[in-house]
Amino acid sequence: MARIAERCSGVLGVEAWNLNGEEKVSFNSKELFPTASVIKLPILVALYSQVMMNKVDLSERIDIDVRQHLGGSGILKVFESGLRPTIKDVATLMIVLSDNTATNLILDVVGGVDPVNSLMESLGFPSIRLHNRIDFEAIGSDIRRLGESSAVEMCELNYRIAKGELLSPAISEEIESILEQQQYLNQFPRYMQVEPFWRELNQVPKIRVSCKTGFFMGTRVDAGIVRFNGGGGFVYSVFNNECEDKTFLPEAEGDVINGLVGLAILKHWWPKDQGEPPVVKPSTLGAGK
C-alpha cells in the first residue's frame, strides 16, 4: 500500500478485512475522506432500516417529474415525466448507476439527511456523515460537502453486510444483492476478471464483486465485498483524494490507483489451492508504466 501511495499525487486511504480470519490491511484508514457517491450506501441502509420497521413499502411507486431531474451520474435525468418506478427500483438505480435523481428521491422517502446520520451513529459509525442532499450549488467544488467517512468505518459497514449482521440477515443479503449489480467496475476491481453477466451467460464466476463507487474531480472512492467461488473473500474500502488528475478519462489517476490497490489485495488473499488469481495485467497507458 505504501508503494502504491507513493505513485498517487493525492492522499490514499485503505482498509480491507479477510472474511476467513482476522487479517486486515490498513493504510491511513482512520483519516476522514470525502465519500463522493459511496455515501449512497448508507442512504440505502437507512431505507432498509425503515423497511424493517414497516415504515416503508418497497413496492410503492414514485411519480417522477422532469422538475426533479438532477445532472451528473444516472439515467433518470434523460427520461420524460410519467415514469412510476417502485421505491426498490429507484434505490437500485441509486446504487448501480449512482443515479443522483434517484438519490434525492430516496432521501425524500427516508426523511432527509438526519435519519441517515442518526442511523450511522446508532450502528457505531460516527465518521460516516451525509452533509447534504445532491445539491450542486451547496456542494460546489468541495465534494466533502456531500459526505465524509474514514476507510475503516466504511469497511466495517461492508463487513457487517457480508456477515449478515447489518440490521438482519435477510436485509444484509438484499443489500449485497443490489451492490452486486454495480455497473461501475473501473476502480477497485479494475484489474480483476469480474464477469458481471455470469448469470445470463450461465457461467460460474471465480470472483463476485458487490460494491459502491464514487467519483469527483481528483477524488475516487470504492467500497464493497469480494467473494471467491471456492469460499472466502474480503471486504474493502479505498479512498483517494486531492489527485492532480481531475479528468474522468478511462485511465484517470484515481481509478488506476484504486485498481492497483484491488489488484494487490486480491493477489495477497487469493487461496493458493484455487490456482492463479483471476487478474489481468494493468494497462500500459496508466498503471503498467
Keywords:
3-stranded antiparallel beta sheet; 289 residues; 5-stranded antiparallel beta sheet; Beta-lactamase; alpha+beta; 33% helix; 8 strands; single chain; disordered C terminus
Write up this protein:
There is one protein chain. This protein is α+β, with helices and mostly antiparallel strands and 289 residues long. The protein has one domain (2-274): Beta-lactamase (3-Layer(aba) Sandwich), CATH 3.40.710. 33% of the residues lie in helices and 17% in strands. The protein has nine helices and eight strands. A five-stranded antiparallel β-sheet has the order 2-1-8-7-6, with helices on both faces. Strands 3-5-4 form a three-stranded antiparallel β-sheet. Strand 6 and strand 7 form a beta hairpin. Helix 2 (40-52) packs across helix 5. The longest helix is centred in the C-terminal third of the chain and has 17 residues, at 253-269.
Short description:
By secondary structure, the protein is of the alpha+beta class. It has nine helices and eight strands.
Task: Give the helix/strand layout.
Layout: H1 2-7, E1 11-18, E2 24-27, E3 32-34, H2 40-52, H3 87-96, H4 100-110, H5 113-122, E4 129-130, H6 136-139, E5 147-150, H7 151-162, H8 169-179, E6 207-216, E7 219-228, E8 233-241, H9 253-269
Antiparallel strand pairs: 1-2, 1-8, 3-5, 4-5, 6-7, 7-8
